[in-house]
Amino acid sequence: MGANYSISHVDAELIQQFEACTWPFDRWTHRAHVRVAYLYLRLHPFDEALGKMRAGVKAYNAANNVPEAPVSGYNETTTHAFVHLVAAVMRAYDATHPVTDSKSFCEMHPQLMSKHLLRFFYSPQRRMDSRAKQEFVEPDLAPLPRILE
Is 69 left (phi over 0), alpha (psi -120 to 50) or beta? Predict the structure, then answer.
């Protein structure tokens, strides 16, 4: 992750539009979140990719007037945990099942395509707690998988 990696025209367009907050809001789905996380992890080390994802989602939400409320708006725990899961899957499978773009990554890993995936790791009370919206909190149901070296 974070190595020299060239991205497809389609992926470059997704990143450009996401960062410019012009990606169509009706297309800002869970799958689009996973694609952006994958691309950031391809292009940057984990901490930098997480920082770019965090800043990007906050800016995108603001540009699209997403209200900050208990069940809407930015959630640090959700963002951090999903970036972690994408990174863990990339490390575990890239050597044996390489992909060439973010769409192929999503097709290869349908286990990441459910926006409810975090229910295996977090109770609703834990993930939707006001502290979890502001800072990363560890799961209370099961630990997140280790990211292989």
Answer: beta
